[in-house]
Automatic annotation (TrEMBL):
This is Uncharacterized protein. It comes from the Bacteria. Residues 24-279 form the EAL domain. It comes from Telmatospirillum siberiense.
Amino acid sequence: QAKAGGRNTRRFFDPKMQAGLAAQSALESDLRAALENKESLVLHYQPQVDRRGGLIGAEGLLRWRHPVKGIVQPDEFIPLAEASGLILALGTRVIAMACDQLAAWSRDPVTSHLALAINVSARQFRHPGFIGEVEGALARSKIDPRLLKLELTESLLLQEMDDAVQKMRALENLGVSLSLDDFGTGYSSLAYLKRLPLSQIKIDRSFVRDILVDANDATIAKTIIVLGKSLGLSVIAEGVEEPGQWRFLHDEGCDQAQGFLFGRPMPAEEFLVHVRQRSRMSSLSDGLSLVH
Ligand code: C2E
Ligand code: MG
Ligand code: MG
Ligand code: MG
C-alpha cells in the first residue's frame, strides 16, 4: 500500500498500482469498443411498484456484455466512464435505449402504462447539449414524455445550483419527470430541496437495509417520507428485500418501492414475461374478489 502523503511519483513505481492502471486503461479501450457495438450495452429492468404492489414501471440499469469478462456491473465501469469522458457517449446510448424501450412498450396494452427511470450522471447533466439530446430522443421515439423519468443525484445538483435548477425546469417543460436518487446520502438541505422541480425522491438503499433493526435508519426513512409528502413529492424506496421492510415503509406512507422483493433487474425479454405473469395474476385476483 502506498504511504499517505508520499510523493506523487511514488505510485508509478508501485507494481501493484501499475497493474491496476494498466487494467483500467484496457477496460477503457474495451468500453470504447463496446460503444461501437449495438449488442454490448444493454439495459436491465427492475420493477417499481405502487402501494398496492401494482407494477408501475421499471428502473433501467446499464449492463455491459464484455466479450471475455461476461456481464460487467455499472459500479465497475461507470466511474471509469466518468473519468474518461466516455460517460457522454454512454449516456446518449442509455437515453436512446430507454426511449426505444418505451416506444416498444407503448405498442402493447399490457405494457403501455409503464414508466421507465434512467440514471443521469453529473457530467452528462452538466454537458451543454444534454437538454437538446433528451428533446431529440423524445421527438424521434414519439413516446409520452411523462413515462420517462430521469434520476438525478444530490451531488449533481449542488454544483452550480442555479444552472442545475434552470436545466431541471427545461426538462420539466419537456414533460419528463425528475427523481432525486440515493436521497439522504448527499448534503441535502431543505432550503434547496424546495427550489427544485422534482416529482419524486428516492430513499437510498443504505437506509432501507437495516430499517427494522437500526433505529437511526428507521428515523431517517420516516423523516424522508414526511419531508417528501410535505413538499408534495412522491417517495420511492430502493433496495427493499424483505416484506417487513416494505410493511414498515408502507405504514409510514411511502408511495412506491423497488427491490429484490419485487424483482431483480432483468433483461427486456424476461421483464416482459414478468409483466405478463403479473397481469394474469392480477386479473385472476380481480376475478376472485368478484366471487367473494
Ligand atoms: P442506483 O441508481 O442507486 O441503482 C440501484 C442499484 O441497487 C442497482 O445496482 C440495483 O441492481 C441495486 N438494487 C436494487 N434493488 C436491490 C435490493 O433489493 N438489494 C440490493 N442489495 N441491491 C439492489 P446496479 O444495477 O449495480 O447499479 C449501480 C449504480 O450504477 C446505480 O445505482 C447507478 O448509480 C449506476 N448506474 C446504473 N446504470 C446507469 C446508467 O445507465 N447511467 C449512469 N450514469 N449510471 C448508472
Ligand atoms: Mg438509480
Ligand atoms: Mg438509487
Ligand atoms: Mg443507490
